[in-house]
Amino acid sequence: IDETTDVPAVNILLSIFAIAAGKDWEKICEIPMGNNISKSLKRQSAYLTHEVFNKYHTETEMMRYIKRLDRKDVSLAHSMISLGSCTMKLNAAAEMLPLSRPEFMNIHPLVPEDQAEGYRKLIDNLSDELKTITGFAGVSLQPNSGAAGEYAGLRVIRAYLEHIGQGHRNKVLIPASAHGTNPASAIQAGFAIVTCACDAHGNVDMEDLRAKAEENKNELAALMITYPSTHGIFETEIVEICNIIHACGAQVYMDGANMNAQVGLTNPGFIGADVCHLNLHKTFASPHGGGGPGVGPICVAEHLVPFLPGHVSFGNAANEVSAAPFGSAGILPITYGYIRMMGAEGLTRATKTAILSANYLAACLQDTYGTVYRGVNGYVGHEMILECRNVHEETGISENDIAKRLMDYGYHAPTLSFPVHGTLMIEPTESESLAELDNFIHVMLNIWNEIQEVKEGKADKTDNVLVNAPHPEYEIVSDKWEHSYTREKAAYPIESVRDNKFWVNVARVDNTLGDRNLLPTCYGCFD
Questions:
Q1: What is the C-alpha to C-alpha distance for residues 324 and 307, in angstroms, rounded to an integer?
Q2: Contact 298, 156 (CB under 8 A)
Q3: Residue 371 near residue 386, CB atoms below 8 Å
Q4: Does position 439 have pLDDT exceeding 60, yes or no?
Q5: b/e 9-43 (16+ beta carbons within 10 angstroms → b)
Q6: Taking a C-beta distance cutoff of 8 angstroms, is the pair 178, 348 a contact?
Q7: Most buried among 205, 292, 310, 428, by the most CB within 10 A?
Q8: Would strands 423-426 and 415-416 be described as parallel, antiparallel, or unpaired?
Q9: pLDDT score, position 524
Q10: Are 98 and 337 in contact, with CB atoms under 8 Å apart?
Q11: How confident is the model at residue 527 (pLDDT cuts 50, 70, 90)?
């Protein structure tokens, strides 16, 4: 019985008990409201006062309101979202289907045992698949995000070290090319950070790694490394790196943010890592964005299996990191469907295609922007860092201007100024067709031409389509147009934009100011 139970339902329930007991019962006409919450804890102020909570009273109105919100947001339904290190890939309809099926979504604590057993079978099967993919012996689906997976993995390492009498180890070595959340996760798990440098080509500086490992070998608990690195290249010395860390008595944590470049070709267990997390909402096709839900399971080598997160539900809360024993279990069917439908051959092909797509972009943009890092064989991994610093030095046009100009072309910006300031990190994934990749290249080259116009003095340095981007519809149709370039150049720079124009809702905002100056406000506080 919950807040959805009404009086007729209560009467039916009472009638069943009355018949079973062989007794008469009196039909209930009304159930009085009441609760046991202390008066001091009850809300005294008004709530849900914003007009949005009081404006829509029909399904039609609500549908239109939601659609208006939908039209404000560019998504994969519009164009490629090339966020580097985030793997914004297709969430296929076939994989999403279970989320609207009652067989999957209406699980209840008192559900029939066969239905609950079916879900447990899915969880076990998925766990087995993830163990095979990573080359590890154990898995926990409990962490609810990649960052939570990092934290859980470090908790497991700490528990193992304490078990073998090495609990004093409290330092984590992290290369500068590691995923951005690694240092924060290590600090949260109670470790101190030692940073390892990278060389001019983006690889881990092996001399610095050896020196830092030797210097801290008695206190070193783990290395956190991303493979391929956030610099978009495969570390050629990755096996030797693992050997160096193990020789110090420490563990190797491999960040799974870039598993989209490993699946089917290699795996952390084969390379020599001890634990990794996976982003099911990246590599394995669960929806990514909007705040979740995410799933960041950890996979571990044999010696770490006994220390995987337990759960109070099963009488073992050791290393527990989530209120639910299997994390966001409701979205596991998406990943399970993706893996089962793709199969080993399909997963491997997806990895190869993701790497091919990134290298195709890198090759096509090499003679203009160029890439910051390439591997020893001259190729990038599944993502690439586009060089924009030279552009800024020569013209004053920044990577931020390029990112905002992309909005006029209907594209979400790539990852901005990470991991290298003044650059754009692009990851096309395997989901995009050659036609979409070619259109993105065409857009980037057209923006390059706009930059050259500024460089050659054909466009004003302070009033051009890049520094003023993006251009919302209300600006384009305004009677007041004082720019030195045409409305057409601003809004429809190439023919393909005419066929698929996405209008942004506001002109340029100072996002850096907003990031650095937190201004809490409340609705209705100001005139």
A1: 17
A2: yes
A3: yes
A4: yes
A5: eeeeeeeeeeeeeeeeeeeeeeeeeeeeeeeeeee
A6: no
A7: 428
A8: antiparallel
A9: 47
A10: yes
A11: very low
Token code pair at residue 190 = 């109670």
Beta strands in 124-178 (DSSP E): 138-140, 171-175
Residue 371 corresponds to which tokens in the numbers above?
A: 């890439």
Amino acid at the residue 110: L
Residue 421 near residue 362 (C-beta atoms within 8 A): no
pTM listed for this prediction: 0.89
User: 315 in the Ramachandran plot: left (φ > 0), alpha (ψ -120 to 50) or beta?
Assistant: left
What CA–CA distance (Å, rounded) separates 344 from 346? 6
> Quick one: pLDDT band at residue 115, thresholds 50, 70, 90?
low
CB-based contact 245:268 (threshold 8 Å): no
Residue 50 is encoded by which pair of tokens?
């914003």
pLDDT of residue 263 exceeding 80, the answer is yes
For 213-240, b/e burial (b = at least 16 CB within 10 A) is beebbebbbbbbbbbbbbbbbbbeebee
Residue with tokens 């770490």: 304
Local structure of 107: helix, strand or coil? coil
User: What is the distance between the alpha carbons of residues 136 and 329, in angstroms, rounded to a whole number?
Assistant: 21
Distance CA 367, CA 379 (A): 15
Please report, for residues 137, 157, 188, 248, the alpha-carbon distance to residue 164 in angstroms, rounded to integers and kept in the order given.
19, 11, 22, 14
Q: Residue written as tokens 């399970």? A: 336
Q: What is the full DSSP assignment across 471-494?
A: --HHHHT-S----SS-HHHHH-SS
Tell me how far apart the alpha carbons of residues 351 and 97 are, in angstroms, rounded to a whole number.
24
Residue of 321, 255, 325, 305 whose CA lies nearest to 283: 255
